[in-house]
Amino acid sequence: MTESFHRSGEYQNPYEGQQQAPVNPEWPPPPAYAPAPAPKKRNRGPVALLAAVAIVAAAIGGGTAYGIQELTGNDTVASSSTSTNVVPSAQKGTVAGVAKAVSPSIVEISADSSAGSATGSGVIITSGGEVVTNNHVVSGASQINVTTSDGKSYSAKVVGTDSKKDLALIKLENASGLKAATLGDSSGLQVGDQVVAIGSPEGLSGTVTSGIISALDRDVTVPTDEDQGRQPQQGDGWPFEFGGRQFNGDTGSDTTTYKALQTDASLNPGNSGGALIDMNGNIIGINSAMYSPTGAASSSSDAGSVGLGFAIPINTVKADLAKLRAGSTD
């Protein structure tokens, strides 16, 4: 996995209040956060469900432009087309420029449960502390701690989860003024496009790697059973199926399949939930799985990235966001 292991705990939804009129129907801003949730009063926004999208873990834990939206407020999401440049012009198109622009929006997540602890990564999507990560990083956690790039630590609560897409939304407590990432458009990606990955592999926060999009629409099958994801597997990798073969352990019988971005950017345990970024600094995927060759027949020197990583397309995350904000526990 790209996280360590844990599980159990209730999901709490800290949302209540009325929603503002959205700037764009595809992007309803989140409701105001309040200490006492009132789920019965929440108005659920429409959710555009894509084909079943689940994610593979790597945890120790385009084209169609959306039009630039710089939404204002403490808890609003910035969306852009892939032509939007978040990177300073002097460093445009460089890995260093992408890292400098986006690293403040990537966090390290530590989650504790009765089954153990897991370390993963997450992407800040609002200045008020909403963070997107993988479900397998936080599922079942009784306590979640998040560390930002400047070393500040926050407690966090789970807002919503979607195990079939391996996505989760968490909310940092007492957070404000955070640097939110700009979510791009994954529909126009092409094989060979350069990308950058940022996360916390093996607990090494803020680690930057780079590569290309190796393939699009890879059918990846992963377990949806919570216990499956929390148990150590050979190579500490989230078990998944690809091309008719199983990797990093047994996926079991309760599975789901999603279409993933494949990248050769180095991903290692702890990268789960982190960002896959285009060269303009837009988030185009959430890293979720890696193939690890470690097993009974492999030596310890074989462990780690071999250039086969997978990420959830950011358009899938966008389509699922309203559902996650509404407190889904699927």
Structural write-up:
The relative contact order is 0.23. The chain has 4 helices and 18 strands. A hairpin with a 7-residue loop joins strand 11 and strand 12 (207-223). The strands form 5 sheets. A 6-stranded antiparallel barrel has the order 4-5-6-9-8-7. A 6-stranded antiparallel β-barrel has the order 11-12-15-18-17-16. It has helices at residues 95-102, 135-138, 226-230, 314-325; strands spanning 2-3, 59-60, 78-79, 106-113, 116-124, 130-133, 143-147, 153-162, 167-172, 182-183, 194-199, 207-223, 240-242, 245-247, 255-263, 275-278, 283-290, 309-313. It has 330 residues and is mostly beta strands. It is globular. The model is unreliable at 4-12, 15-25, 38-73, 227-236 and 295-302 (pLDDT under 50).
In angstroms, what separates the terminal alpha carbons?
Answer: 20 Å
Helix fraction?
under 10%
| Spatial order of strands in the largest sheet | 4-5-6-9-8-7
Biggest beta-sheet profile: 6 strands, antiparallel, barrel
Mean pLDDT: 76
- Look at the helices and sheets and give the structural class: mainly beta
Q: So how many helices?
A: 4
The share of residues in extended strands comes to 25-35%
Order of helices and strands: EEEHEEEHEEEEEEHEEEEEEH
Taking all Cα atoms into account, the compactness measure Rg is 18 Å
Based on DSSP secondary structure assignment, what is the total number of beta strands? 18
Segments where pLDDT lies below 50 for 5+ residues? 4-12, 15-25, 38-73, 227-236, 295-302
Instruction: Tell me, briefly, the overall form.
Output: globular
Topology of helices and strands:
Layout lengths: L1 E2 L55 E2 L17 E2 L15 H8 L3 E8 L2 E9 L5 E4 L1 H4 L4 E5 L5 E10 L4 E6 L9 E2 L10 E6 L7 E17 L2 H5 L9 E3 L2 E3 L7 E9 L11 E4 L4 E8 L18 E5 H12 L5
Parallel strand pairs: 1-2, 3-10
Antiparallel strand pairs: 4-5, 4-7, 5-6, 6-9, 7-8, 8-9, 11-12, 11-16, 12-15, 13-14, 15-18, 16-17, 17-18
